[in-house]
Amino acid sequence: MSLPKPVLEREKALKSLSTREKILLCFQCGTCVGGCPIARAISRYSPRKILEKILLGDAKNILTSDLVWLCAYCHTCYERCPQQVGLSNVFMDLKNLAADMGNVPEELAKEALQMIRTGWIVPSSPVIDRRRVEMKLPPIPKVNVAEIQEIAKATGFLNLIPEAKKRGGGRGV
Amino acid sequence: MEEAEVSSYALFLGCLIPRHLPYMEVAARKTLKSLGVQTVELHGASCCPEPMGIQGLDHITWLALAARNLCIAEELNLDILTLCNGCYETLKTANTLLEENPHLKAEINKILAKIGKQFQGKIKVFHLVQILYEDVGPQKIKSLVQIPLRGIRVGAHYGCHLVRPSTIMKFDDPEQPSSLDKLITALGARSVRYPRKMLCCGAGLRGIDSTSAMAIAQIKLANMKRAGVDCMVVTCPYCMIQYDLSQHLIQRAFNEVYNIPVFYYPELFCLAMGEKPESLGFKFHRVDPTPVFEKIQNAGL
Amino acid sequence: MRRNDMEKREQLKEDKVRLGVYVCHCGLNIAGVIDCDKIANFAAKLPDVVVARDNRYMCADPGQEMIKKDIKELGLNRVIVAACSPRLHEPTFRRCVKEAGLNPYLFEMANIREHCTWCHSHDPEAAFEKAKDLIKTAASKARYLRPLEVMEVPVTKRALVIGGGVAGIHAALDLADMDFEVYLVERELSIGGRMAQLDKTFPTLDCSICILGPKMVDAGRHPNIKLLSYAEVEKVDGFIGNFHVKIVKKPRYVIEDKCNGCGECVKACPIDVPNEFDEGLGPRKAIYVPFPQAVPLKYAIDKDRCIECYKCVDACGEREAIDLSMKPEEIELDVGTIVVATGYDLFDPSEIKEYGAYDNVINSLELERLINAAGPTGGKVVRPSDSKKPHRVAFIQCVGSRDERAKIYCSGFCCMYTIKNAILLKEKYSDIEICIFYMDMRTWFKGYEEFYRRARGEGITFIRGRPAEISEDPITGNLTISAENTSTGELVDLEVDMVVLSPAAVPRIGMDKLGRTLTITTDPSGFFMESHPKLKPIDTATEGIFLCGAAQGPKDIPYSVAQGSAAAARAARILARGKWEIEPIVAYVYEERCQNTSVKCGICATRCPFGAIVAELNQPAKVISAKCHGCGTCVADCPTSALTQMHFTDAQIFSQIHAILEEEPEKKILGFLCNWCSYAGADLAGTSRFEYPPNIRAIRVMCSGRVDRDFILEAFRKGAGMVLVSGCRLSEQSSDCHYISGNRHTEKRVKALFPVLEKIGISPQRLRLEWVSAAEGEKYAQIVKEMAEQLVALGSEKIKEENAKAKPFLDRMLKKLAEPTAAVPSPGNSST
Q1: Which residue of A has its CA nearest to B218?
Q2: B164 touches A: beta carbon within 8 Å
């Protein structure tokens, strides 16, 4: 591996990360991995290794794989990192970069579409509606979906969701 | 005792509780009512939005949608009370980020202007457990208990987003919290020490890798079982789904038996206040909590 | 024949200034860019100049001889050398003129190399004009220079050593062997410090107390060492050679002279208390010695725990050594130098919450006491929860060290002592399993890497990975360590019987209070700050006070011992000479102008980090010259201009400002640069040959704190294009200021000027405040470039316009400058 190109790659990836200054401080101690619930369950996932790849300019492989979506955002690494790199936020940034590149898990795309269409990530269900009445709960307040869709249009959110893009998202989603 | 000032909050229901686990809502509303905490419905509010996936797609959209929810409460001039750890994290983080970063606030307000809203940063965000601990307090709760939950050994599960990230949540301690434990002991029960108490429930992996999600939840169930609990307490619907709805799957996958009923803290609170189990939605729990009710009754005799 | 300086001083009143200017070619360094002959001719035409010459190398013998000859034959009473930076050769030329009989403070340098020909070589014409300006400025100041005498103070031939650990003991012994009287003050009941608590030392595995004990006894017995144990330093006044110290000896309730250390009292005492020496792991009685080899071996009563049953008094019997009515004793003494050797404490690892506070998780010092045969378990290593022998022990490194949430520094000795403890455990219990979790292994000195090798060779496991958390099994008390083995990338959940943490070494409790008592500072880590990290690691910024051992930063025993001897040597330098010279660039009070006599002022006292100026109620402020380091911050902030600084008086600096701004001021950037950092940084820019625009003219001050706001206002009043004030590096957390806090006051003072300038219509970019360190030559060049560009962008017309508009305001604000100043005093008047 020759040096100049990865450094450029790293700089490119880091440039868009708001957390880039702190990432450089990682000294690979592994505290994040020791406490990470995902690393415990999935042996090929290692927050430390992901960070090392980024430092060495190998970000593209991470960003196009499913690894970047495995972080459960539990913040255990964030609390314990001795260099206070702010790991969970770094991974959130990486997810954004990955989404920009078109790498979006299917489940998440569905969830996002559901939210833009109805304002909720959980669909409504007549069973639950009946149950609420039985349990004497007030009806769920209506959501202002139009406002949500305005916002999504303003930010170009739907361009990130392959399904929505296919249907020319933004118009009557 | 003097009647405390009646506090009023905008109740943020979120998605999961009202639309999937309404019995949690029942317990929450009963709890708040019995303490004289008034709540107002948030008309127009949407999903918070969900802090892991939606924020993962686009931070700015997530922030704008969260700000929109905050604006609705600001217009009512009421602080927000959430029932779910996820909603708590999203709304509190958004509130803090926008307050502390004028550039970000300006950017988001530009987007909000398109729907005629402006974020000002006038209100605060609380979690139900936080209100119970900080505003009401374990002492007051203890004094209101009708049926002390004597002899009940409880495993307290804080979840991730109630106390982390500590720089934003600023509630209790991220590694050795005590608020939920004290709320449990206030009801007369025992909060049991068990290893890896602050471990995440694993809900984040649901839908992406269910087996791994279960593996993570299993660790805590096994630890709690070893420590000898009668039940566990959660403060979040995702954790409820992981530990209650999926417990039988985990048992099957790992060839273990746990039979640990899972309670949303307000449910336990209601029991201690003398509510009949039938009036709460326990029939919708997957893991049968009857053994706990029997134990409570026996202890009372 | 040298003329008497006293005569000369008198003569100054009548005599005219007779100035000699010497322009150095410096080979081609200067001559290659400007015509030195022409410069000398220009200088010859300046007022008061009697002779102006040029020479290839002024600093060499022929150059110096030339100056000396002229002083003698032409009766010169001021000398200027236009050459390199004064930071380089001012001492050389001062010596030279002194040898010719002229007071060395009647000499001034013009920096036409580093600040001129080296950085403006691309514009020789501009360099030439600048060189003329610099010489003219130097001549201007030279006229106002007055002879100054170095102050000589006597030195009390006695030393104080604060702290009786291994470093302090060695410092005391070395000084005592040099026949100086030494007072060794120790806060605890016995000397010995941390080393006395250790079992064995790395890498030799010497028994710690065995090698320390004899030294402790020597220190206790040395005829030249007076040991004051259970005592603390309360107050320190004075200055180098002349410290007046107040020590308070806490009451032992045991009369030391009568106690023979028999120990009968202990047998009778019914009260058990956790023993601090054993880190609370074992008991002691309310009447006790901390450990058997204590020096002095005298008992003491812990009055807080004593129930006054008098059983000890009975047991003591005829010796009558116990006196429960004892009071603290105050001891006052005069010393010439002070050595600070106060050691370290350990970080409380329970602050790293994810490691929990479990019974069977102990720290390294606790393990030392367990392993030690004289410890609470007689050398048996057992775990706290059930006193059972552990079969598998884990060590965790860097607990609180290298951690942004706790201490960011590395504590330096923990890798080595953990390896040592692991080897010791293996020696004691051959079947014990040991695992060390680490991030890096720092085994850097003689025998250390070999020691590490030995540990690995004995089968001790090393896992590179910092543990994320420790959980406890509530039933067995065993601990599970969750970590990643970064070497294999695998998660490790290691179950062990006992965990030993290596906590960070932290400053000892009470260090900041002692620092204030001694007027020495601590660095951002909380340890005492040395004068210069590379070249003066033992000195502090306060002359006469030295550091050694862990007080200066965590270090191992050989390093501490070496520093102890070093501190003794540094102290002896002063004590041996019997007298000490103090540079006369000190502050001076015009008492008739000091407003502290009528109103409560004392602003000057608040500016001084050295306690060198005191302002007692209704008294004029008094400068303790020997303590004054010469920064000038008090001078600049005095609201009634009652203070001046020798060799950097207001008159001298104003003359420089006027000289620089005499011609085309609107095209010039006037810079005030501090001697230690910014001026040095500017020198570096020249040395590095960074080219930058020649508009800037620098005035050297010792500290940016000296820059009076009146200097800046006067500069604008005289039509300056721009003004730059630059000092040592400053941030929220730390300051590199050579005078500790001068630059903080500069910042406040200059920032307060910005709204004033705005009000009178001066564009904000015309005043610039910067922090340039001695290493930032490029930064300096960049700043000057930017300012010059802004100068051009504003344009001379606009600047002249703004200046004209502002002038009436500035005239009014600076009216008091026109008032006659008091006569410049001769140095004999300065208070000591």
Answers
A1: A41
A2: yes
Whether residue A81 has pLDDT greater than 70: yes
CA distance C157 to C464: 53
Last residue within a domain, chosen from B86, B103, B127:
B127
Kindly determine whether residue C468 and residue A76, on different chains, have CB atoms separated by under 8 Å. Answer: yes
Mean pLDDT score of chain A = 85
Sign of the dihedral through C-alpha B89, B91, B96, B102: positive
B284: in domain: yes
Residue of B nearest to C352 (CA): B175
Contact between C8 and C66 (Cβ < 8 Å): no
* Residue C602 in tokens: 């004392």
Smallest CA-to-CA distance from C31 within C51, C52, C57 is with C57
- At B78 the pLDDT is 96
Question: C486, A83: Cβ pair inside 8 Å?
Answer: no
- Across the interface, whether the CB atoms of C474 and B227 are under 8 A apart is answered yes
Q: Which amino acid is at C677?
A: C
How far is B2 from chain A, CA to nearest CA, in Å? 30
Residues B215 and B179 in one domain: yes
C-beta separation of B273 from B243 below 8 A: no
List the single residue in A with minimal CA-CA distance to B204. Answer: A72
H or E stretch at C547 = strand C545-547
On the 0-12 / 13-18 / 19+ scale of CB atoms within 10 A, C269 is buried
Asked if residue B266 is part of any domain, the answer here is yes
Residue with tokens 């920009």: A100
In a shared domain, residues B123 and B195: no
Quote the CA–CA distance of C340 and C87 in Å, as a whole number.
Answer: 31
- Does the beta-carbon distance from B227 to C480 stay under 8 Å? no
Tally of CB atoms within 10 A around A50:
24
Stretches in chain C below the pLDDT threshold 70: 1-15, 733-734, 817-832
Is residue C353 less than 8 Å (CB to CB) from chain B?
yes
Pick from C353, C471, C480: which is nearest to B173 by CB?
C353
> Which residues share a beta bridge with C480?
C471, C495
Q: Quick one: pLDDT at residue B296?
A: 87
- B46 — contact with chain A (CB < 8 Å)? yes
pTM assigned to the model: 0.82
The stretches in chain B having pLDDT less than 70 are: 1-6, 300-301
Residue B173 touches partner C, C-beta closer than 8 Å: yes
Phi, psi of C388 (to 5 degrees): -95, 155
Shortest alpha-carbon distance between residue C771 and chain B (Å): 27
The helices-and-strands tally (H runs, E runs) of chain C is: 22, 38
| B216 contact residues in A (CB cutoff 8 A) | 37-38, 40-41
ipTM of the complex: 0.91
How far is C728 from C751, CA to CA, in rounded Å?
16
pLDDT higher at C248 or A57: C248
- CA gap C818, C710 in Å, rounded: 12
- For residue C175, count other CB atoms closer than 10 A to its CB: 30
Q: Give A4-100's CATH code, choosing from 1.10.1060.10, 3.30.565.10, 3.40.50.720, 2.60.220.30.
A: 1.10.1060.10
